[in-house]
Amino acid sequence: MTHFDWHNPYPSTRMPVFARNVVSTSHPLAAQAGLRMLWQGGNAIDAALAAAAVITVVEPVSCGLGSDAFALVWDGEGLHGLNASGTAPAAWNLDYFRKRYGEDGALARRPVRGWDSVTVPGVIAGWEALHARFGSLPFADLMAPAIDIAERGYAVAPIVARKWQAAIPELREQPGFAQAFMPHGRAPEVGEHVRLPGHARSLRLLAEQGPRAYYEGEIAERIVAYSRACGGSMSLEDLRGYQAQWVEPIAKDYRGYTVHEIPPNGQGIAALIALGILEQFDLASLPLDGVQSQHLQIEAMKLAFADVYRYVADPRAMELSPAEMLDPAYLQSRAKLIDPLRASSFRFGMPRAGGTIYLSAADEQGRMISFIQSNYMGFGSGVVVPDMGISLQNRGCGFSMDPASPNVVAPGKRPFHTIIPAFLTREVQGRRQAVMSFGVMGGDMQPQGHLQTLVRMLDYGQQPQAACDAPRWKVNRDFSIDVESTLDAACARELVARGHVIQSIEDPYMDFGSGQFIWRLEQGNADRGYVAASDSRRDGLAAGF
Description:
This protein is an alpha+beta fold and 545 residues long. It has a domain at 267-354 and 441-544: Orthogonal Bundle (Serum Albumin, Chain A, Domain 1), CATH 1.10.246.130. The chain has 19 helices and 23 strands. The strands form six sheets. Strands 1-22-21-17-16-11-10 form a seven-stranded antiparallel beta sheet. A seven-stranded antiparallel beta sheet has the order 9-4-3-13-12-2-23. Strand 18 (473-475) and strand 19 form a beta hairpin. Helix 5 (139-152) packs antiparallel against helix 8, helix 12 crosses helix 13 (291-311) and helix 12 (268-278) crosses helix 15. The model has no long low-confidence stretch (mean pLDDT 93).
């Protein structure tokens, strides 16, 4: 039996949800679609795929049919990782961008929006791979709720409406954007009815022809034709050659549990590095929301990012392996760099050689899935294929234009990725058992959200909803710190006194992520059920039966 402190000391609109079958997502209609699949006899993976399809409709500000995706799946016996992040078109290299966009200093310019920020979308191939290996219901059944909502329409949720409106000034001129996402020439208001008929058309084609239609059939032809018409470089060969990849998760032990992440090209290793550093300190002896605990976590995160930004890329191009970056002796040496009383600015070390949605689902047979899909910067590239509702990610801007970087752009290469699902297990009497599927969406906030919520649950015994609701900080790329306005004022003042450069942010949606958590109440006994949490920073819902 799990022993949490079930008191929640933080203001919250959510309560933990207890059930034998659970779906937790950032939008209620997506959670309900997942439950519908479970009621029909499907499993947790079926539920997650139905929810993922619906959320492309109801939360288009974060993901779409042109997203990328990752997943960690517990099948009842073991954990499996899926990398469905896209690859660079064959035409992309440094000269391609230099000729099109010129130079910024000595480096080629890199576009942030438009067709030249779009890598091959991986999400549909990810759905295909998950369904082929673990699905139990017909793929068309999984698409049915999303098709119905896209055709009949839905009322726009409050946080979705706010982000939709914020995106308009930058994206309204991007190809296809206004037609798809500016009904009445503007963003929809809270509660306004929105239909997405083009989106429904694409979902119907996927249901009728199968996911490969996206890469080899009518949908692929429409994507490539629009790319060509707009001067983009995406080709049929780029799409036909794409497959999602099953990968071995990477892991780090922490406080008697094992934390699992997807290996690079994603940044999940940052959370593992920071946890490996923090394990050298007795956090549980320090006040939970006090300055010393927060200072140590911030410094560990800065050390992790210093290495991640230097070394992480497509694994085929990395100078170091994840095992080298997670070497216990190396992490111990990094921990010694932390000044317990002062903020520091760290450089990368040298180990010895050798716009996003997150959702989770679990069923009473013991299957659990940690799933994430994203268009990256809100609506991503801003490009939407006309009459098809396919909004395309802008993951290409995750490449470096520095020829010396392992993350330099190249044909067929995967860029550095921010989206990361996570999973927690525990070894009991020689057998590995599932504990929690979880994730925190939001760019560079994701590994930081993993770190902060895990510390609260594993070091301090906070229940998942309280750990989810607690105020957060975020380390920026220049090592300055953003803090939520709900962070204790005395703690914030003491962080400043220690040399941290911080600011208080009122808008948590864009800066501090949003998570979903499903914790098995009794390891080794799925029939005992789960407790689920959904972050109040989004319109989400944890629901079950």
